[in-house]
Design a protein that fits this description.
The complex is a heterodimer of chains A (about 210) and B (about 190). With about 210 residues, chain A is an all-alpha fold. Helix content of chain A is about 65%, strand content about 0%. Chain A has one domain. Chain A contains eight helices and two strands. Chain A has a two-stranded antiparallel ribbon with strand order 1-2. In chain A, β1 and β2 form a beta hairpin. In chain A, α1 packs parallel to α7, α3 runs antiparallel to α7 and α4 packs across α6. Chain A is globular. The N and C termini of chain A lie close together (about 10 Å). Chain B has one domain. In chain B, about 35% of the residues lie in helices and about 25% in strands. The relative contact order of chain B is 0.13. Chain B has three helices and seven strands, in the order αβββββαββα. Chain B has about 190 residues and is of the alpha+beta class. The chains are: A mainly alpha (about 210), B alpha+beta (about 190). At the A-B interface, α4 of A face α1 of B.
Chain lengths: ~210, ~190
């Protein structure tokens, strides 16, 4: 797992996108990934919300890192994350009401998404502001990319549309399983397999 | 005391600042959220009445120490084309809020729409789908509605439960029956 030691800010950013992708490599945040990726719109909004939270959380944690005592750090991380998730949730309910209803309880559940607290623990608590920001951006964008790939596949095959716009031809027989949980597991499993095969083939030494 | 403070001052300070941030967020977003909910409720009220609804007049009726919201649905000429009764109750997970449509004479259910629920995604929360709402159209509002798992018949005032979501389906019916039995008799006050 890429950590705050030694890596440059740019390397930290890139790691979140590919070699340390939170969903496809670290296998974190599986719950929202499986639950809300049945449409592209849901995936993008969830990704955006989580990215906002991880950036704010990393910045606050990094800013206060010299003041946070080890025995209260989890409490402080959770407090910070909960606050920003609530702000994001209220923002969505005010401005994107329909999507907010579709995402339902999964936006408040970002609070317990391991990805975010992991970044605070592994990077922000020991890194400067800029590096923490880059780390958060990389992880957030990586998360959003993973969600969107799943969303595109599941919505295209399961509903014949992309972002609500019908794309598949008239006679297309929808793969209903794709918008249901089994479709999520199948698609994610294949995606993880493909991504890690490619990643290990191209990494030096081919070691995991 | 000083040891307590030296250990926890940061948590207390952050808690206070975050509380202020959240209060600010609520002040900023609260009104829009209330507007959104209101618009959704009015959309649902219009959708449960078959006729074209021009104006919605909101009223309240007193039922056993509680106030229930009722919408008078008026047509283009100001005539009564239907009623929309709003109520909420307990579902499988938590609160379910719904709107029941009634014919002008209060005898027939013209529609039902669930507006708020936190039932199980993919199963219980299908009570918000049009396909489930349609099962209530045309039922007798004077008799209780019953839920069956198979072979529902509107002649017997039955609706079919959603497969895998019996409890949510029964909750919706229970709430509908409750609001119909309690509010229907009071509609004459509002005519």
């Amino acid at each position: 797992m890429a950590d705050g030691n030694g890596n440059s800010a740019a390397a930290q950013f890139k790691a979140g996108l590919w070699s340390d992708n939170p969903v496809l490599v670290q296998l974190l945040g599986m719950c929202p990934t499986l639950a809300i990726t049945n449409s592209v719109e849901n995936a993008l909004v969830m990704g955006a919300a989580a990215t906002f939270v991880v950036i704010c959380s990393n910045l606050v944690t990094s800013l206060l890192r010299s003041l946070i005592r080890p025995h209260v750090r989890i409490l402080i991380f959770t407090l910070t994350i909960a606050t920003f998730v609530t702000i994001a949730d209220r923002f969505l309910a005010a401005n994107l009401f329909e999507v907010s209803k579709k995402l339902g309880a999964f936006v408040p559940l970002i609070i317990v998404n391991c990805i975010i607290i992991c970044r605070a623990e592994v990077c922000a608590i020991k890194s400067g502001l800029f590096k923490s920001f880059c780390d958060a951006c990389g992880i957030g964008i990586g998360f959003t990319i993973a969600l969107t790939i799943l969303g595109v596949v599941r919505e295209l095959l399961g509903s014949g549309s992309l972002y609500g716009i019908p794309v598949m031809p008239e006679g297309f027989d929808k793969w209903v399983i794709m918008v249901l949980p089994p479709g999520a597991f199948l698609t994610l499993g294949i995606l993880i397999g493909v991504v890690n095969y490619a990643r290990l083939r191209t990494s030096p030494g081919g070691a995991a | 005391m000083s040891k307590f403070l030296s250990e926890s001052w940061l948590v207390l300070a952050m808690g206070t600042i975050f509380a202020l941030l959240l209060a600010g967020a609520q002040a900023a977003f609260g009104p829009r959220i209330a507007e959104n909910r209101r618009a959704e409720l009015e959309r649902a009220a219009r959708s449960v009445v078959p006729a074209e609804v021009g104006k919605l007049e909101e009223a309240t009726v007193q039922v056993e120490k509680e106030e229930k919201t009722v919408f008078k649905c008026l047509g283009a000429g100001g005539e009564l084309v239907g009623w929309a009764l709003v109520d909420s109750g307990f579902g499988f997970q938590d609160k379910i809020k719904l709107v029941v449509g009634l014919s002008p004479d209060g005898g027939k259910v013209t529609g039902l729409q669930v507006v708020e629920n936190v039932e199980t995604p993919g199963l219980g929360n299908r009570i918000e789908e049009k396909e489930f709402s349609d099962r209530y159209k045309g039922l007798d509002a004077t008799e209780g509605i019953t839920v069956v798992k198979q072979g529902a018949s509107k002649d017997r005032n039955e609706i079919q439960a959603i497969t895998g979501a019996t409890i949510s389906s029964e909750a919706v019916t229970r709430i509908a029956n409750s609001v119909l039995s309690k509010v229907r008799p009071k509609l004459d006050e509002l005519r």
